[in-house]
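$ fold --in a.seq
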Amino acid sequence: MKNINSILTIAILSLFALIGCGDNELETTVLDLNVSGLENLGPDFAYEGWIIVDGAPVTTGIFNVDDSGTLSSTSFEVNKEAAQTATAFVLTIEPSPDPDPAPSDVHILAGDLDGDSGFLSVEHGAAIGTDFTSANGGYILATPTDGGSDTDERSGVWFLDLAAGPAPALDLPTLPAGWIYEGWAVIDGTPVSTGRFSEVSGADDVDGFSGDAGGPPFPGEDFLVNAPAGLSFPTDLAGKTVVISVEPVPDNSPAPFLLKPLVGQVPATATDHTLYDLGNNAVSTNPTGNVNINE
């Protein structure tokens, strides 16, 4: 009987030991995320955090942002052992729902982890890789697709420098996969795309508002036909706003994304075919953040 009791005692102790090992493997800690400058992505996309462990991404959780920029969640339960060995944090934009368990190409913020904390920025190499403060450029007003007519010349915007050749009027950093530039004219409060592009030379992907004649091989658009609801084309861009934004790919929004490195107001007395500068707006539109792991 004594031997049987001993055997039972050993078995019970072994069982508790196994249970204890399992609990250690599942031990968790909390990752706190503090980010400002993000925007509401709508119903089709969401933000997802990742810690990089032994070179591989481990998800920390998905969250949304409302119209005021408030995160739906700022604290996330993560595996403690993974968190203790993580070297970096990356924030991505993902489809919602997302059939792929791996991160998308759209990395918006990242930062190295120094112990249990890290600063997040767009310029980190695991994010976009630049803060856009070196971006600069300009535009002219012209309507080259109207077949040679010299009327309504202030109804088109083109990112080119006539005096230089013509030549590109934009100097922009090269974007990684997952991102593309887009030009805009904000007309009476309505942003209208001039087209998306990855190179400052060559046509962009929009010509739906232009006339029948071909446009120059640079980003830009004439606003002559097919005006969006609430607007009338031709228009007059004097006093309006011109924007170069950085957009995620894919993108479900008809408005510029939060990253707007170049912005300029067209002078009220603007003349056509004259080069006007865009101001650098990157510092005021770049999101930033911090991540902290509770030990």
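$ fold --in b.seq
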Amino acid sequence: MKTSDFDYILPPEYIAQTPIEPRDHSKLMVMSKTDGAIEHKHFYDLPDYLKKGDVLVFNESRVIPARLMGRKSGSGGKVEILLLHTVKPGMWETLVKPGQRVHQGTVIEIGTGDVSITAEVIARGQGGIRTVRFSDETKLNELGIVPLPPYIHTPVEDPERYQTVYARVAGSVAAPTAGLHFTPELLAKIQSRGVDLAFVTLHVSTDSFRPVKADDPSQHLMHKEYGEVSSEVADQLNQAKAEGRRVICVGTTSVRLLESAARISDKNILSEFAGWTGLFILPGYDFAIPDALATNFHLPKSTLLMLVCAYAGSEKIKKAYSNAIEHGYRFFSFGDAMLIV
């Protein structure tokens, strides 16, 4: 297996720069996991592929205003800080640009006047990773902005459009984008058909849009992400599986979290989970939980594309992506969706 096996050519005009309105009017490709058969629908048609007793699993993590613009104390050189996760109160692991110019001991000034803080670099990691101590982290929400992926060049008028309508637990630096297609009305329609909803939390890191650079994907080091599955949700999903009802994951983040929780048990039974996961799913992986998957179209050579190939089969996914390009689907975060059943 090579990383190049997960590469494909995508003309830039297929990368969605703005979200579709309303949310559920995006296109939906429905693909059979069994034979690769494809149907072209819209996301508002999703309830037609659900049945009473199904359980849809959503990642309710909320994107934080993680992007901070600052300047080096003394020289005034511009510095961009992306918050990754807290180490302890006042201290964060961050991604700093330009990383090569920000050394341990560097002090970065953020904001002006009464709304200003400093960030001191106290440890240096690889690839721009820096551990930073903030003088007052209570002002981070006020000073930061919601980060968009690097391939989106058009500003979003409403930052809430890069949040799912059910986002509740703050902590992600990128949205769990498969959920961006849902509206409150669509969720209500789904529930009216006897479909249950379950909510878990996995705080998404920058790995969502970071290509694998190693020639051998098994050599790629996944950034760990923090997630939680409550005991109530674990029991709900275990009961569904025991009764032969489908568990349908919304997004690759939900899959990774549930699979991480299931791996605790030798019997692939879910239990309460709260911790970090660096699970990297490649073709050949034996899935324990999802019976179907709703997901977006992912970047070439990405860990997310590798997971989808592991779930549905690389050849089927390659054909599906080619078909999506032929039919003018929009790709990546603000793009269209596919349902693998």
